[in-house]
Amino acid sequence: MTEIHQTDICVIGAGPAGLFAVFQLGLVDLRCHVIEALDRPGGQLTALYPDKPIYDMPGFRVIDGQPLADRLMDQISPFETRFHWGRQAISIARAEPQEGLPLGGWQVGMKDGGAVLSKVAVMATGGGILGYGRTQAAPPGTDTFFQTDSGLIPTDTGAFQTATSGIFAIGDGCVYPGKLKLILSAFHEAALMAQAAFAICHPQKRLKSQYTTSSSELQRRLGVRGAD
């Protein structure tokens, strides 16, 4: 039997962009499933350069790739995130309205036949594409936002949404005017994406502007001791 999961957000890729996306989405109380082809977090950062020093990370004079991934994982530990390690996402297709998805959403297919149903899908893959090469045809039912000569996904700069509503792309895999391929840029993209994703998941709700330093609601989500 095909394994089908349902959640608010499906994040594809567990590199720095994907992990910080989970944090930002958790702050606005959205549940995430993360599909990662590798068997561990960090993406290319830890797979290829775990001991590579990074000198342009805010708050650190220098930090290596593995410790950065470890800190990002620790940061999202308060949230009930489901990771699908060693699973390759190969397609995104529209999902019809159903229980848990009253407005419909997206079905992200995995190579082994499993799938994640979500209200929003976030591409946080370093190459911008799923589990097929940029010269290959997309699987049936997959939206055409993948079809770019460079293999990168064009987005807007207000929410990093693709031409298809409900599909976002962040990190090295997206492209827009002025794009810088920096981890710092991916963090910015994740923060704005989360705000727009909330509006899609909860169209009748207004997202309050809050700060983690002063909001007891956010602190409770983060598991801060003594938060009222």
Tell how many strands the DSSP assignment holds.
11
- In one word, what is the shape? globular
Range of helix content: 10-25%
Instruction: Give the CATH superfamily.
Output: FAD/NAD(P)-binding domain
Structural class: alpha/beta
Stated plainly, the CATH topology is called: FAD/NAD(P)-binding domain
Model description:
The chain has a single domain, classed as 3-Layer(bba) Sandwich (FAD/NAD(P)-binding domain). Helix 1 links the parallel strand 1 and strand 2. Helix content is 23%, strand content 22%. Helix 1 runs parallel beside helix 4. The protein is an alpha/beta fold and 228 residues long.
Give a quick precis of the structure:
The chain has 228 residues and is α/β, with parallel strands linked by helices.
Present the secondary structure layout.
Layout: E1 4-12, H1 16-27, E2 32-36, H2 44-48, E3 53-54, E4 63-64, H3 65-75, E5 82-85, E6 89-95, E7 105-110, E8 115-123, E9 153-154, E10 167-169, E11 174-175, H4 183-201, H5 216-221
Parallel strand pairs: 1-2, 1-8, 2-5, 8-10, 9-11
Antiparallel strand pairs: 3-4, 6-7, 7-8
Keywords:
single chain; 228 residues; alpha/beta; FAD/NAD(P)-binding domain; seven-stranded mixed β-sheet; two-stranded antiparallel sheet; globular
